[in-house]
Amino acid sequence: MDYILSPTFSLMLAVLVLYTGRILNKQIPFLTKYNIPEPVAGGLVGAIIFYIVHQYFGYTVSVNKTMQDTFMLMFFASIGLSANFSKLREGGKPLVIFLIAISFFVLIQNGIGMAVAKAVGLDPLMGIVAGSIALIGGLGTAGAWGPIFESKYAVEGALPMGIASATFGMVIGGLMGGPLARYLIRKHKLAMPISQQEQTESNDVPVSEQEYVFEQPHRVRLITSDNAITTLGMFAFTLAFATIMRDITMDTMFELPTFVWALGGGILLRNVLESVFKQEIFDRSIDVFGNTALALFLAMALVSLKLWQLADLALPMILLLIAQTITMWLFAVYVSFRVMGSNYDSAVLGAGLCGFGMGGTANAIANMQAITNMYGPSHKAFLIVPLVGAFFIDLVNVVVIQGFLKFFG
């Protein structure tokens, strides 16, 4: 029996999950040592509890999907609303290099997927489903492409396999990003951990206008009710724009996931207000709402994971996903880290890459926040990853998928 929580209980559950993760991170040194984000720690505990409820009592408990999606769209809208054109120019050459590197990774991810799928007796196209469709693309992309693979390319089980792979990727992407960055930082002596006292003192100092949003979510933000109301109006406009564009472009060559329209709408609104109407934008307020939406979305998404879908995966599919995990680690350590400069910023970028390369941009931001809370800020990483992970890479992924289907479909 399926039981969907009301919006009120969904929000209450998400807050409980976040506090559970916070308590676990304080009480279990392993979680802090390896920079596991609080929503991931608490969310997995909730998912395990709901797995037990499903297995022994036959109930499937889910949060309110509309509320979860709204928080996701708010997060992506906040990225767009915080990105003025001057910040886009700041990305410059490093942003282009990172995008090129990750574009090659999309090719590698699908190539590895097809090779392993064929080796273990699966349809080679299943390697694309469990490759960039599910991992780079996430749950939404897997849900969209699954029926197409089943009906047009006769790949049986593509939809459930894609959903299960995306679920796996969301978990692994949240778990491996922090340890990978920590490994690189310690191996190459790139930074020293900030003491607990320094973190507390830093958090008490309000964020300045020059500091990038999302970078240090526990830092104090000074906002007023007027700022908050204005910012909420901007979020409402951006989400409405995303919904309208999704409906207009549906089944056309311009069709994009709704969250991409939310990000693009945020960028458009921010720069029109600043450049044309000379309006002041309250970055600190955007920061507060964006970080809140991110934490609540991740908590809801992870606690709603249907772990029995992973448990039911056949051995060949498990081997395929293990191969993808190893590929991600090797690429982040030996390719991405090096081409981006082999410095602290590139280590934080590696944590972000694991997040959106295996799960999604929300995972990427959470991974990087866990690292910067421990070792200090990385402006470059928090500028590049949201733009590449939430916007550019989705466009690249569509082109790559279409190319693979043209040659192998």
From TrEMBL:
Highest taxon listed in the record's lineage: Bacteria
Question: What is its membrane topology?
Answer: Multi-pass membrane protein
Q: Which UniProt keywords apply?
A: Amino-acid transport, Cell inner membrane, Cell membrane, Ion transport, Membrane, Sodium, Sodium transport, Symport, Transmembrane, Transmembrane helix, Transport
Q: Does the keyword Secreted apply?
A: no
Q: So where does this one cross the membrane?
A: 41-59, 71-89, 95-116, 128-149, 161-185, 228-246, 288-308, 314-335, 347-366, 381-405
The GO terms this record gives for MF are: glutamate:sodium symporter activity
User: A GO term (biological process) for this protein?
Assistant: L-glutamate transmembrane transport
The record's section on InterPro entries has:
GltS
Q: Where in the cell is it found?
A: Cell inner membrane
Q: Which GO terms describe its cellular component?
A: plasma membrane
According to its UniProt record, what is one Pfam family this protein matches?
Glt_symporter
* Role noted for this protein: Catalyzes the sodium-dependent transport of glutamate.
Family of this protein:
Belongs to the glutamate:Na(+) symporter (ESS) (TC 2.A.27) family.
Name the NCBIfam families on file: gltS
Q: What is the name listed in the Swiss-Prot or TrEMBL entry for this protein? A: Sodium/glutamate symporter
Organism source for this protein?
A: Acinetobacter qingfengensis
